[in-house]
Write a structure and sequence with these properties.
Blueprint: H1 2-60, H2 66-228, H3 232-258, E1 269-274, E2 280-285, E3 292-297, E4 301-306, E5 312-317, E6 324-330, E7 333-338, E8 342-347, E9 352-358, E10 364-370, E11 375-380, E12 384-389, E13 396-402, E14 407-412, E15 418-423, E16 428-432, E17 437-442, E18 450-455, E19 462-467, E20 472-476, E21 481-486, E22 500-502, E23 508-512, E24 519-523, E25 529-533, E26 540-545, E27 555-559, E28 563-567
Antiparallel strand pairs: 1-28, 2-3, 3-4, 4-5, 6-7, 7-8, 8-9, 10-11, 11-12, 12-13, 14-15, 15-16, 16-17, 18-19, 19-20, 20-21, 22-23, 23-24, 24-25, 26-27, 27-28
């Protein structure tokens, strides 16, 4: 690079200096010519002076002849003409000399400028040489670094090859362990299913025996009555027996529906659990009344918890980086809907995904297991609600319900024929699930959108709603009118998934505040505020009041810090 620059400067100097060589030569020739003309002029001036002296002598000496005088005058005239011509030539040469001197001066100035430029370029060349030397040093250091890096790379490649062999061996061992574990799990599941079948058979047998014992007791009582001759008691005894059976049957139904301990208003936190690493969006109790509760979170997981001990029973993973918007659990099945436009179904006993329901065009906001876990109802931001049949190995999408606003929440009646959806436009819509027809609509029930809709557990004509206007409303479905409203100065609903819930008997309503984290409880019929529970330190979005399993635990809430609180 430096050599090329030096060559360019030398070529430029040669090109700019060459034209001035002829100028210098012409200037020198002109100077010589001027000197010779000056000397010739001096000689002619001397001759002129001599002739003038001779002329004066001739004019003074009148004795000379007229012929000599005429010859002298003629010679003088000729000499004068010659002197004038030489003077003109001298003037022309002087003018040319002055022009040449001016050109030479200009050339000298240009040459001085070029010398200055040449000096500057030489300084630049020196700087560039120094920079080139530094760059050479840098290149040498980089070459040495490359050599070291190559040696390190070769060493790393050798280590990587060794690690690959180690990993391959570990994978083979892991495959063997997985195979053995799968066989063991399958065997345990099979044995558990057999045990459950045996327990079910034993339960059926016990129920039959109990019925037979009751029948025998009734027959024995009838026989005793007949022996005493109290025939009029016969009918009364039979009626009492039937009434007892009906009461026992109703008691069994209530136990199956609401739990063995009835409705419990929570008073304190039983378990405070760091359930997830980020915000929890939903919490749902097992629909069959077991001691299980499921939570979904923005950390892309759904987790199942034991309500009696607070222990985690399962972690079910969805798509990485996609938030779980909601969940549900019924028996041995768990569903989780996510922002990746799909809904996943897991089998709890194996913690394996058995279905991934794909068909929505936007995030799935809510999901419910219905028909005993044979079907799934999903709502999406694509303004549709879909019904899925998951009773077989391959799922099937059976019905699509179309609407004009994103559905934030879903609830389904006990007969699984009617669904209710709450929407961002503040309205509530009612649907015939099988036909896909909209049967009713209540418009602008809340300002800012409906975040939760919960059908009354015992009265099919009423529904509880929560909205972004931070108000809970009890609504008469037939009239489309609000029966009562429930508010509190500390109650706020900042999330589209903020939940609310009836108590299992429908007497109370509760929800969590998304700002203070307080749990608020109201009486439904009057809207009277009953109690405020303060354990959460972050906003509460998910809330559930379940039927209560064998341990009697019924109320759960989750917050934006990832905590799950099980209340007692």
């Amino acid at each position: 690079m430096m050599e090329d620059l030096l060559n360019l400067v030398a070529a430029r100097n040669a090109t700019e200096t060459l034209p001035f060589l002829s100028v210098h030569a012409a200037n020198a020739a002109l100077q010589n010519l001027v000197d010779s003309l000056q000397s010739r002029c001096d000689e002619l001036e001397g001759d002129c002076m001599n002739l003038q002296l001779q002329l004066e002598e001739l004019s003074e000496g009148k004795n000379g002849g007229g012929q000599r005088l005429r010859a002298s005058l003629k010679n003088e005239t000729r000499l004068r003409d010659k002197i004038e011509k030489l003077q003109e030539d001298l003037n022309e040469k002087l003018r040319i000399d002055m022009d040449a001197s001016a050109a030479a001066l200009k050339t000298a100035n240009d040459l001085a400028g070029m010398k200055d430029m040449n000096s500057t370029l030489e300084g630049t060349i020196i700087d560039l040489r120094k920079a080139n030397e530094k760059l050479d040093e840098t290149v040498n250091r980089l070459k040495e670094g490359i050599k070291d890096a190559k040696s390190h790379t070769r060493l790393a490649e050798k280590q990587y090859a060794g690690l690959k062999d180690t990993i391959r061996g570990l994978q083979e061992e892991n495959d063997v362990i997985k195979s053995e574990n799968t066989k063991l799990v399958d065997r345990l599941v099979s044995e558990k299913e057999k045990s459950m079948d045996q327990i079910r058979e034993m339960s059926e047998t016990v129920e039959k025996l109990v019925k037979e014992i009751e029948m025998l007791k009734s027959l024995k009582k009838l026989e005793e009555t007949q022996k005493k001759g109290l025939w009029f008691m016969k009918a009364g005894s039979l009626e009492d027996g039937n009434g007892t059976d009906d009461k026992q049957e109703n008691k069994q139904d209530n136990a199956r529906q609401w739990g063995t301990l009835g409705v419990i208003i929570p008073t304190e936190a039983k378990h405070v659990i760091q359930a997830h690493s980020s915000e929890v969006t939903s919490v749902r109790y097992d629909g069959v009344g077991s001691d299980l509760v499921a939570t979904s979170s923005n950390d892309s997981t759904v987790r199942v918890w034991d309500t009696s001990s607070g222990a985690m029973r399962a972690t079910l993973r969805g798509g990485s980086g996609h938030a779980m918007m909601g969940c549900d659990i019924v028996g041995g099945l768990v569903v989780g809907c996510a922002s990746d436009k799909s809904c996943r179904v897991w089998k709890l006993s194996t913690q394996r995904m058995i279905h991934q329901l794909v068909g929505h065009g936007n995030k799935v906001t809510c999901a419910r297991l219905i028909s005993g876990g044979k079907e799934v109802l999903t709502a999406s931001a694509d303004r549709s609600i879909k019904l899925w049949d998951i009773s077989r190995n391959t799922y099937r999408q059976t019905t699509t319900l179309r609407h004009s606003s994103t559905a934030n929440c879903l609830d389904v009646s006990y007969d699984t024929k009617t669904a209710v959806s709450g929407h961002m436009d503040g309205g509530v819509r009612f649907w015939d699930i099988r036909s896909g027809e909209k049967t009713a609509e209540i418009e602008t029930l809340h300002t800012g959108g409906v975040t939760c809709a919960h059908l009354h557990p015992t009265n099919g004509t009423q529904i509880l709603t929560n909205g972004r206007d931070s108000v809970l409303k009890l609504v008469d479905i037939r009239m489309g009118s609000v029966i009562s409203t429930m508010t509190h100065k500390d109650f706020r609903t900042p999330f589209n998934w903020s939940a609310c819930s009836y108590s299992p008997d429908g007497v109370y309503a509760a929800a969590g505040s998304g700002t203070t984290g307080d749990i608020m409880i109201w009486r439904v019929d009057s809207g009277e505020f009953i109690k405020k529970l303060s354990t959460h330190r972050a906003g509460v979005g998910g809330f559930a009041w379940g039927k209560g399993g064998s341990c009697g635990q019924q109320v759960a809430s989750v917050d934006t810090s990832g905590k799950l609180v099980l209340w007692a």
